[in-house]
Each structure stands twice: as structure tokens, then as C-alpha cells.
Amino acid sequence: MTWLVVLAWLKRIPWQLWAAISLIVVLSLSHGCAYRRGASAVQTDWDTQKAADKVIVDTATAAARTTESRQAGLIAGATAQLKKDNADAQATLNRTIADLRRGTVRVRDRFTCQGAMPQAAGSASGSHPAGQGGLSVQDAEFLVRFAGEADAIASRLTACQRVIAADRQ
Q1: pLDDT in tens, the chain (169 residues)
Q2: Cα end-to-end distance, the chain, whole Å
Q3: pTM of this structure
Q4: Number of domains in the chain
Q5: Within a domain: residue 150?
């Protein structure tokens, strides 16, 4: 019985209202289909752009890893050369200092000021015997160690320059 009441009520609705309802339903379905079609096209464009971006990122990452690997090799080579140079320089420094202490090596002959200021020259050389030549062992050792430190700095700078020069090639 309820169906009959509902059907009777629906028959009383004017045809204009039925046309409006039908138009709304058709337009809604049409809009839904168009929206889904548009969303699908946007998703396809998005996926295509995302794939293209991934290729670009992967290519750049591979290039960066290649460069990083090459630079690591350059730095490793420069570090090995620096360690070898430092070991050789330290051995030479130790040998030179030992020779200075034994007296087999002299840095230079001691100088004396002859002429205008004889008393200054006499007082400066008064603590050293007249026959002694070269710098004192302590002074010579200080100068040799100082030169060794300067050589170590120059060696590090040379290693850095080698890395930079190799990187620019």
C-alpha cells in the first residue's frame, strides 16, 4: 500500500519539475565523467613529469657519484704522496740533526764584524772561541727544525695544489 501512495504522489509532480530533475541528473553525470576524464589526464601528465624528473635526478646523482669517486681517488693519491714526502723529509731532518750533533755538518761559518765597531765584534764573539766555525749546535738545530716545519707546510700546500690541478683537468 505504501507504494501506491508514493506512486500517486509522484504522479502529481508537474512535468517541468521532472524535466528539471532529469536535467540536473544528466548534467551531474556529465560533469562527473568529465571530471574523472580530466583528473585522469592530469594524473597522466603528473606521472609523465614525475618519471622525467626521476631520470634527471638519477642522471645527476650518477654524475655526482662519479665526480665524488674521482675526487676521492685524487685526494687519496695526494694524501699518500704527502705521507711519503713527510716521512722522507723527517728522515732527512733527523739525519741532518744527528750530523750536526756529531759535528760532521756545519750550517755556515761564524761571521765577525771587521772594521767600524771592533769592540762590538769583540764582545759578540767573546763567548765563542776564535777557532770555532759555524753556528752553535743548538742554533743550527733550531734553524734546521724551523726549516723542516716550513718544508712540511710547503709540502701540504703542494699536495693541495696537485688535487686542485688534477680536479680541473
Answers
A1: 687 777 777 778 787 887 888 888 888 878 777 777 777 777 888 899 999 999 999 999 999 999 999 889 888 988 898 899 889 999 999 999 899 888 888 776 655 556 545 454 444 444 544 445 557 888 888 988 999 999 999 988 988 888 888 878 7
A2: 95
A3: 0.51
A4: 1
A5: yes
Q: Which of 145, 18, 52 is nearest to 92 (CA)?
A: 145
The residue range of the domain holding 156 is 67-109+133-169
DSSP codes, the chain: -HHHHHHHHHHTS-HHHHHHHHHHHHHHHHHHHHHHHHHHHHHHHHHHHHHHHHHHHHHHHHHHHHHHHHHHHHHHHHHHHHHHHHHHHHHHHHHHHHHHHHTS--S-PPP---SS-HHHHHHHSTTS-TT--SS-HHHHHHHHHHHHHHHHHHHHHHHHHHHHHHHH-
